[in-house]
Amino acid sequence: MQKLKIRIKLSSPLIISSQSGDSTLTQTLTHIPGTSMLGLLAGRYLRDSKNCQSFSRLFLRGDLHFQNLYPSKENTVYLPCPGNLWRSKTHPESFVNVLREPGAGNDYAKTAGYASFMEDYVDLYTPGREIFFHHERDYSKGISKSGVVFNYEALSTGQEFTGHILGSEEDLATIKALLEQDPALRIGKSKTSQYGNAQLIECEATELGVDEPETGDEPLMVLASDTIIKNAAGISTIDLADLESLLGVKIISASIETVRIETIVNAHKAKKPSARAFKAGSSFLLQKMPKAAAAFARHGLGERTWEGFGQIYFMGQFPAKLRLLSSEKSEYSLPASPPPALIKKLAEEVRTRVVSTLLCSKASQIAIQIGPRRLSNSLLGRLESFAGSGNFSQSFALLRELSLQKIRKIHLGDKSFDVYLKDIDHEIESLINSAKAMSFGSQKKLRDLIEEAGLPDLQPEPLKSLFLRTLFLNIRRVNNKHREAK
Question: What pTM was estimated for this model as a whole?
Answer without folding.
Answer: 0.68
